Amino acid sequence: GESVGLHLPTLSVQEGDNSIINCAYSNSASDYFIWYKQESGKGPQFIIDIRSNMDKRQGQRVTVLLNKTVKHLSLQIAATQPGDSAVYFCAENSGGSNYKLTFGKGTLLTVNP
Amino acid sequence: TAGITQAPTSQILAAGRSMTLRCTQDMRHNAMYWYRQDLGLGLRLIHYSNTAGTTGKGEVPDGYSVSRANTDDFPLTLASAVPSQTSVYFCASGAGHTDTQYFGPGTRLTVL
User: Mutating which of A101, A102, A105, A107 best tests the B interface, going by the most B Cβ atoms within 10 A?
Assistant: First the structure.
């Protein structure tokens, strides 16, 4: 079946560097994508989303890029801070009436001071 | 605004016992969801509700039941708990199928 996957399970960066977390999706019918951040012991927290009619969307220090040609999604975090250390999930909604998201398994981002 | 609240925060339960995990949202979202999160398996959907009065099965519904009597509450019941139901359970809500889902803080359940 269709699934969302992540290229890298772990990512370690230096404080102040930019981070890029990647996600591949396989359902070409997906029309909505979300990035979540999950800190240890907490629930997933919405970071940013993008719809399939867009290629790029920017938030505060974060940018999501969508490449529909190769079915690839990325999350860029500028000037990574220790507070950014967490597991990051991508999720896709393939539309339809079931209102369901399919989640990737996550990438652990560690920011070294 | 509280958003989504879950109770209890954590629970240890004897196998064979029943338990209801509570979830309440104050955002007037139509859709609500229950997930379990297990190491290496990510978030898996147990049950969902598109609107009050309706429910549907997710990816791993066996051993769980839900009800949606009103917009705000979406309890998850384990009728007879088994050790494989040891997990962290997250409730989420969303305004509709193209909107994001907002998660609660989770309930950590251990079944012995």
Answer: A101
DSSP state of A44: -
Phi, psi of A83 (to 5 degrees): -70, -10
* A2 pLDDT higher than 50: no
A99/B49 Cα distance (integer angstroms): 9
Q: Which residues of chain A have a Cβ shorter than 8 Å from any chain B Cβ?
A: 31-32, 34, 36, 41-46, 49, 51, 89, 93, 95-101, 103-106
Whether residue A3 has pLDDT greater than 60: no
Rounded Cα distance between A30 and A79, Å, is: 30
Predicted pLDDT of residue A6: 43
- C-beta separation of A4 from A92 below 8 A: yes
Q: How far apart (Å, rounded) are the C-alpha atoms in residues B38 and B20?
A: 19
